[in-house]
Amino acid sequence: MIRITQMKLPVTHTKEALKEKIAKTLRCGKLPFTYEIRRQSLDARHKNDKKFVYTVDVFFQDEKKISKKVYNNNIMSIKEEPYHFPKPGEESLDFPPVIVGSGPAGIFCAWYLARAGYRPIVLERGEEARKRQERVNDFWKNGILDPDSNVQFGEGGAGTFSDGKLNTLVKDSFGRNQEVLKRFVEAGASPEILYQQKPHLGTDVLVRIVETLRHQIEEMGGSFRFRSKVTDLRIEQGALKAVVINETEVLPASVCVLAIGHSARDTFGMLHDRGICMEPKSFAVGLRIEHPQKLINEELYGEPENEILGAASYKVTHTCKNGRGVYSFCMCPGGFVVNASSEPGMLAVNGMSYQARDGENANSALIVTVTPEDFPEEGPLGGIAFQRLLEKRAWEAGKGKIPVQTFKDYRMHQASVSFGTVCPKIKGAYTLSDVRSILPKEIGDSIEEGILSFGEKLKGFDREDALLSGVESRTSSPVRMVRDKDLAANIRGIYPCGEGAGYAGGITSAAMDGIKIAESISKKYRNF
Q1: Which residues contact 139 (CB under 8 A, 6 or more apart)?
Q2: 468 alpha carbon, distance to own chain's centre
Q3: Which domains does the chain have, with CATH numbers?
């Protein structure tokens, strides 16, 4: 096939115009061809002349008929190898692999193991996606928290109640990234996610997709058990013998994948007690900021709305005078701030968008990296102690509701008593408060300096009535479980996996890590 890169067309172009552009670029006349879009990105540097930039693969019945004269740095003949899952190994398995957690890492690990004939058992402490959705909606409405089924725990993992972003910075030469996107499309996602620069699914679509993936796994021989929290491990002579469910049931197992997510703090504690080697990990904390979506659109598109491009998203970074870096994270165009708490007496926030991204406000996290030197306790669980400290302060600041503050009052170190023209778009109860008081001084100062800096890049970002809410403390895992070259832990049969284990950051990278773990298990063990 022939790959063309850096091919630009106006954002209003038609499919016919794209095909004509391909034919003209390759000078192929009326020679028949088909094509596949591999990437579509937006060039909005000239707001009155916005363009889509394409990478396309073009297929001819006889590629030799295309003149070599057209080949250059942007036009080349390539051969792409398809993704291959490894053949089963030789070591026998007495029991099916157990996968703890049904977030993207756990689901994708289970999907590939099930297809390869390993009959995995997925244990999930929370509920099925639809029951979980009802539970979360009830929490946002009435404030009644279920510690085991909430925004963090349940089928689909924490990503189910997010924007559903599928872009990743992980370098991938094995085709796992494309495999993840293909699985999502086959489960009901739009085919456009296969090539969009910043693909997303949306919370409303994710629920249906994770259910479909579960049904596919079950049809291939896998099984799911909900409300099944792993509370202990049985280990003998350095090897896994069983997992304990809900403190009473003992399930024999010789292979267990720990895809527990970054918020399973009680599970981290149990694993540490059982001798799983882990270490503290840097992560980031901060606040959510809300602006009118039309302001962001105007700054990035040059117009308040654009039906073709949808809601605009941004990425901003700044290095502060104190040496700290502050940056935007998990930007949710046309979305909502959500109460993402999972422990009583503590409060954390996240961002969420529906597929249409048609909400009134844009929101994103503004976060500052913290290291083990910032943690109040030493040891592998020091970052968890730091998170809990901030979340307890957030709970107290809002008396159980999400605390909200205008940027003007944030700069003046005073609690807000009224909103400006920006009205909060929040899932869950909220109240005006002093959000800055939640954060350590150095982090609070960094966020103020960052917002003022971002206002120089995006006009209006530092407006006085921009809204800040907190605390954003679940950006990534505060723990990393140590893995060897075969991706296994120091206890034989244990495979740390995904974002909670410290090896991913987002839906796609977690799913890719799940596939990697499935590959490692397949290389070693015979299937059933």
Answers
A1: 145, 146, 150, 151, 339, 428
A2: 22
A3: 2-77 (3.30.70.2700), 98-279+479-524 (3.50.50.60), 282-472 (no CATH)
Q: With beta carbons less than 8 A apart as the criterion, state whether 179 and 515 touch.
A: yes
Q: Are 517 and 101 in contact (CB under 8 A)?
A: no
Cis omega before residue 471 (within 30°)? yes
Alpha-carbon span 141 to 154, nearest angstrom: 19
φ, ψ dihedrals at 405, nearest 5°: -150, 140
pTM here is 0.95
Q: Which residues are within 8 A (CB) of 264 and not within 5 positions of it... i.e. 6 or more apart?
A: 101, 125, 153, 500
Q: Are 425 and 360 in contact (CB under 8 A)?
A: yes
Q: What does the angle CA 342 – CA 122 – CA 264 come to, to the nearest 5 degrees?
A: 25
* SS3 per-residue string spanning 68-82: HHHCECCEEECCCCC
d(CA 201, CA 193) in angstroms, rounded, equals 8
Give the span between the Cα atoms of 168 and 504, in whole angstroms. 10
Contact residues for 33 (Cβ-Cβ < 8 A; gap 6+): 22, 23, 26, 58, 59, 60
Closest among 239, 232, 274, 435 to 349, alpha carbons compared: 435
Q: What is the pLDDT of residues 272-306, one digit of tens each?
A: 999 999 999 999 999 999 999 999 999 999 999 99
Q: What is the mean pLDDT of the chain?
A: 96
Query: What's the distance, Cα to Cα, between the start and end of the chain in Å?
Result: 39
Structure tokens given for 427: 């899932």
Give one word for 357, left, alpha or beta, with left for phi > 0 and alpha for psi -120 to 50: left
| DSSP letter for each residue of 471-518 | EE--SS-SEEE---TTS--SSBTEEE-TTTTTS--SHHHHHHHHHHHH
* Separation CA 117–CA 347 (nearest Å): 42
In this structure, the chain runs to a length of: 528
Pair 405, 448: CB distance under 8 Å: no
Residue listed under structure tokens 């289970």: 110
Does 80 score more than 90 pLDDT? no
Give the CB-side neighbour count of residue 267, counting CA atoms within 13 A.
27
Residue 365, strand partner residues? 288, 329
Residues 217-273: tens digit of each pLDDT:
999 999 999 999 999 999 999 999 999 999 999 999 999 999 999 999 999 999 999
Rounded Cα distance, 311 and 331, in Å: 11
d(CA 45, CA 307): 18
Taking residue 15's Cβ as centre, other Cβ atoms within 10 Å add up to 7
Distance separating alpha carbons of residues 195 and 365, to the nearest angstrom: 26
Q: Report the DSSP pairing between strands 361-370 and 283-292.
A: antiparallel
Q: Which residue from 355, 343, 321, 352 is spatially nearest to 392, judged by alpha carbons?
A: 343
Q: Which residue type, as a one-letter code, is found at position 324?
A: R
Which residue matches tokens 């907190």? 470
